[in-house]
Structures are given as C-alpha cells and as structure tokens.
Amino acid sequence: MQLIRIVWCLLKKETYMKALIIILLTINCGLTFGQNYLWQELEGTFQTYGSEVIATSSGDIICFGTDSIPSNDGLLTHMYLTSRNTNGLVNWSISIAPSTIGIDGYLGVSIDNTSDGGFILGGAEVVGVGNACVVKVDANGTVEWYQLLNEGWIVKSIKQTNDGGYACVTESGIIYRLDSSGNTVWSVDLNLSATSEDLELSSSGDIIVSYNDLVSPTIIRGSVISYSDVGQLNWSFSDVDGTIYYGLTILPNDDIVVGGNGFDGVDASRLVKLTGAGTLIWANYLDIFLSAANFEREEIINVVSGSNGNIYAVARSTGHIYNMGMPTGVYEQMDNFLQFDVTGNLTLIDIGINWIQGSELNLGMAMTLDGGVVYTSYDLNELSLVKYFGELGVSNLKYTKMNCFPNPTQGGIQIEFGQELLNVTIEQIDIIGRVVNQMELESCSTTEFILKGESGHYILRCSSNGSSSTKRVEKR
Known about the structure:
mainly beta; Immunoglobulin-like; 5-stranded mixed beta sheet; 3 helices; 34 strands; globular; disordered N terminus
C-alpha cells in the first residue's frame, strides 16, 4: 500500500519532495500514511486569512481571521467571519469593523462560542501597533458590543466562562477575566519577555495558559500556568531550556497536552502531557520530517483531543527556498496532520496538506460535532480550511475527492473524482472570487474542463449533492 501511495503522489504531479518524504519515512519509521482528510476548501479571494476555527452545537464550522478586501470605510483590514456547513460549503461570510475612527484596521485572531448562540471575538485594533480588543457578535456576525483592553497587543486566545463572562490572554502575557459585557473583573500580568500562546478552561473553570519566556538573553523556555476563576495562582510548570510552546488542549480527564518546539540535537517538534495539577506525565521530541527531507525546523503549532483519547496535531516543517544552491530570504513551510495515542505514540501522518511561502498568524484546530477535525490556515494568501477524518468511520463518510491534470495547463484540464458522482457542478473562480466558467453534469467520474480567462491562478470547485472539493490550478 505504501508503494501505491508513492506512485499516486507522482502521478498526481505533486512535488517530488513530498513523494521522497513518504519513501524515507516508510522505510525508516513504519508509520501509517494516507489521505486522511475529507475535503479542503480554499476561500478563492486571495485576500482572507484564517486564524482560528470552532464548531457550533448545530454542526456548522465557524472560521475567524482577517481580510484585506477593499471597502468604502477606509480601513486596510477587517475581522473576517465565515460559516461553513459540515461539508465545507459557505453558509455566510461577513467583514467586521466595530469602529472606523482613527484606526488603520483590525486583526481577527481568536474566537469562542457563546451561550446565546453568538460568538466572542479577540484580536487587535491596528493603530500603528496593535491594541488588544474584544468584540461580541450575534449568530449572524452583527456587533453587539466592543471593548478595548487596557494593555496588550493582541488577544491571542479567548473562552467564555461558566458564568457567562470571558477569560482571555494577550500575546504580551496579560490574562484578563471579563464580565458578560467585557468589563475587566481582574487581570494578571505574567511580565513576559517573550509571548503567550493559548488559553483553555478546565472542567472546574480554572484558566490554563501556555506561554514562553526568556530565562536569559539567549535561552527561551516553554511554560504552562494555571489560575483559579478568581485569579489565584494554582500552579506553574516550566519545560527544559530551549523549548517553545504553542497550542494546548484539555483532555476529558483534565490532563493537559501542549505542542511546540525544542532542541534535541535538531530543531524538533515537542509534545508534552501534564496532569491537571501541572505534574509532568511524559514529554516527547519528534524530528521525523527533519531527518527525511531538507527542512531546518519542525514544530507542533496546535493540538486538539478526541473523546476516544487520541490527540490530533498539526506539525509545521520549515526550510529555506534555495536558488542556485544558496538559501534565499524566503521560507517554505509544509503543514502535516498527526495523530497520537493516549501515551504519545505517533500513529498516523498525513503529509503536506498546505505548502506555504512566508509566515503565519495563530492557526486553529477544533473537533467537529460529527467527530472530525478541522484546521484553518492560509495558503498563498488565501484562507484554507481542511477537514480530517479524526474519529469518523470511513464507511460513514460522504465526500468528494478531485484530481486535476495537467497542472499548470494551457487551458484544458482533466478532472477525475475516483467515484461516480451525481448532480455535479464545476466552477472556475478567479482571484477576486468571481465565477469565470461553470459546467453542470448529471453524473460523471471523470471529465474535461476548459479554463477560460487570462493566464494566472484559479480555484476549481466541484460540488455534488451537498459535498465539495477545491483545487488550485494555473493557466499559462
């Protein structure tokens, strides 16, 4: 099966590097590989950026981030909110700007569901530098209230508390406990010389925060800290020197898992599990991608936990793009989906969902109502949303896979679905979201589609009976 997977990569005209990684990892590690995702949806505007994603009680997926779509309000950027159904199709999207007076724009970074069916948003008001802000919106994205926080650059993570208030942490390391109207009840400054990363609530309402701090001018250390709902310090945990922490998740038994980066001879991923009282259970380094390909750094950027005890994560591998054998100032990043069992053993890898140039904001993961895992990022300056199988049984899935070749193309492109689909709609979407060409078929498993318009990048979107898939294609 692994040989089939390698040949499949090459025939699809995916990068030879991706196929090489799979060959080396299969030989060296004996891990399970596969197309472990249901679908990937690209926004298609090239002007939206996903930072966080949540699932609602109705099963919809809410993605939150920032847009740079031109508007008449004079702002360069807005908070951006989009609702998708379980198959990734758009329910609605909205740009949000609570105020337009004396500012350049907004950044959208963190989100949580609220008990009234709406959402609480965290981010920054941009006035040269960021001013941390919190925005409450209803179920349709309409602003109900807006609060600037006294200090902090960006609200990195926010959660609604049991009493209808909110707990949040800014990137500069200030923890805020807010009431239901966004007024500050108490705050704690961690006095960081680096950054905070994520915040979660335990089953008892304790506030758990992952952060990083410089213990010397050249040494950074990842840490986790816990406060009670009334602001009393419960405990703190610090990892070894040279570690950096990012996303964390709370397991059903209140154990804590945090992902990050550390140095173990190489710049490797780090995964740590703590008890709910902050005692270390285990800590692992992972450097499988560094040993298999020309990457220089690897880090686990976010984690979520499933009800079955599995831990799901996205690991990012980073390396320079080379020109004439010399490293350039541009980095290429590859995102990889990982699955771990309850003891931290790596059991599944899905390689290279996104290949990205540049750097990114905080990136979100969430479990969906049906047991899948959704992950948002941005790929070549457009929002990317991916849904993985997670705890879903393959026999119960309804999804559309789409292979397109040749890509790039002079105009004609062959599309293969791998199965017979009914009521098929294929759309060619340009960089500003316009449908350039469209074709409808009663049924097909393979078809030819003609790209219209000028040379450039387009999105091909295929929809079939409520399910969809997208691919980026290039016309030359």
